Amino acid sequence: MKAADTVAIGSPVYWHNMSGAVRNLIDRFYGPVQAGALKGKKFVFLFQSAAPEAWMMEKAE
Ligand SMILES: Cc1cc2nc3c(=O)[nH]c(=O)nc-3n(C[C@H](O)[C@H](O)[C@H](O)COP(=O)(O)O)c2cc1C
Predict the structure, then answer these.
(1) At 17, is the secondary structure helix, strand, or coil?
(2) In total, how many domains does the chain have?
(3) 13 C-alpha to ligand 1 centroid (Å)
(4) pLDDT given for residue 39 in this prediction
(5) Closest ligand 1 atom to the C-alpha of 47?
(6) Residue 37 lies in a domain
(7) How far apart are the CA of 22 and the centre of ligand 1, in A?
(8) Dihedrals phi, psi of 27, to nearest 5 degrees
(9) How many Å is the Cα radius of gyration of the chain?
(10) Does the beta carbon of 54 lie inside 6 Å of ligand 1?
């Protein structure tokens, strides 16, 4: 991720949220990834969902 220009992370939607595995990945940035280390990169977050609801997409944004 540090070497990339664009970081894309994807997750299925489980109970109106990202999956536990993706959540763990992001949580574990805390510590190893210093504040600002990914600054300036394009970031894309992709959800795959069976029945997306408008409020969920707004919260995700
Ligand atoms: C435990 C579980 C919870 C899910 N919760 C939601 C949900 O809250 N909203 C939704 O739109 N889809 C939900 N889904 C559907 C998944 O997002 C969907 O299965 C996943 O994106 C993979 O797509 P596929 O089943 O077509 O392979 C859930 C699926 C599972 C297994």
Answers:
(1) strand
(2) 1
(3) 5
(4) 93
(5) 21
(6) yes
(7) 14
(8) -60, -40
(9) 13
(10) no
The domain containing residue 45 runs over which residues? 6-60
Domain membership flag for residue 33: yes
Task: Give, using CA atoms, the residue closest to atom 29 of ligand 1.
Answer: 14
* pTM of the predicted protein model: 0.82
Q: What φ, ψ does residue 45 adopt, rounded to 5°?
A: -115, 125
pLDDT digits (tens, 9 = 90+) for 26-61: 999 999 999 999 999 999 999 999 998 888 888 877
Residue 1 lies in a domain: no
38 contacts: CB under 8 Å, gap ≥ 6: 1, 2, 7
Q: Is residue 16 part of a domain?
A: yes
- Give 36 Cα–ligand 1 centroid separation in angstroms: 33
Report the pLDDT value the prediction gives residue 28, as an integer from 0 to 100: 95
Question: Does the C-beta of 52 come closer than 6 Å to ligand 1?
Answer: yes
